[in-house]
Amino acid sequence: MAAQRSPPRARARERERPGALASGNDQVHSWALVTSHALDTAWGIAKGLVMLAVSFLVAALCYFRRLHLHVGHRLKWWSGYLQRKFKRNLSVEAEVDLLSYCAREWKGDTPRAKLMRKLPEKLLFSQGCNWIQQYSFGPENYTGSNVFGKLRKCVELLKTQWTEFSGIKDYHKRGSMCNILFSDAILEYKLYEALKFIMLYQVTEAYEQMKMKKVIPSLFRLLFSRETSSDPLSFMMNHLNSVGDTCGLEQIDMFILGYALEVKIKVFRLFKFNSRDFEVCYPEEPLREWPQISLLTENDRHYHVPVF
């Protein structure tokens, strides 16, 4: 009889198992819902904080932009006010170069603009400066009224190159630029002519000062004491015009070159070794603390640049 009652108990246990499994599934589902809700809440809070931070950042940027514009306008106003307040009321401005002024102010191609650019040259000719037309650009012996235009371009080129080289501090980069510069014969030729014209300008200035009984450097007195360079015209015709064509610079010309460039040129004359004339400076006594360059020469005609 006992053996016949055991099967119902087994069936009862089997009926209890599905209920236990359902209860476990409900707990897992409940925990998943709670976790999902918590993550959604955290993401919502984080998203709100991020949006709030972005809003504050945008507002701050807009504020600082308006502040920058306001301060800029105020500074501009005060700058203009102070300039008007303290600027001297000059009826006559500082002197300017007439040729450069006309070239800058009359740039058009109209007949009037061309005439205005030519008038200063005609004015200089009428005032006794037409002898400059005999200036020679190396083998080009006569340029006529075009001399001012050509000289202006040469001087402007020298100024540009001088400014560019002065801004280069690296030794190797400056050396590379020098090699490029002196590989262009036309460019080098124009720089030579600019230096010649600066020398002529210095001689003319010293000559005018001497005529007004003013003190001039002794090197110019030595220059004007020679029959072949008693005035700027004779200096140009007998000496300067030949430079770059049939001859180089003489010693007196080296003095003038150093003075014109405000550079102390130290020359080691190899053919004067073991004598007091082995080392010379042009000019001998610079007026100020001028920069110094060094050259080597074998015969006072051909010069070499030593690389230290």
Secondary structure layout plus pairing:
Elements: H1 2-86, H2 98-105, H3 111-129, H4 147-166, H5 171-181, H6 185-211, H7 218-224, H8 232-238, H9 251-261, E1 264-269, E2 279-282, E3 292-297, E4 303-304
Parallel strand pairs: 1-3
Antiparallel strand pairs: 1-2, 3-4
Helix pairs in contact: 2-3, 4-6, 6-9
Describe this structure in words.
- It is a single chain.
- The protein is mainly alpha-helical and 308 residues long.
- Among the domains are: 43-81; 126-248, no CATH class; 263-307, no CATH class.
- The protein is 63% helix and 6% strand.
- The protein contains nine helices and four strands; from the N terminus they run αααααααααββββ.
- It has helices spanning 2-86, 98-105, 111-129, 147-166, 171-181, 185-211, 218-224, 232-238, 251-261; strands spanning 264-269, 279-282, 292-297, 303-304.
- A four-stranded mixed beta sheet has the order 2-1-3-4.
- β3 and β4 (303-304) form a beta hairpin.
- α2 (98-105) packs antiparallel against α3 (111-129), α4 crosses α6 and α6 (185-211) packs across α9.
- The longest helix has 85 residues, at 2-86.
- Its main location: cytoplasm.
- Belongs to the peptidase C65 family. Otulin subfamily.
- InterPro entries: FAM105, OTULINL.
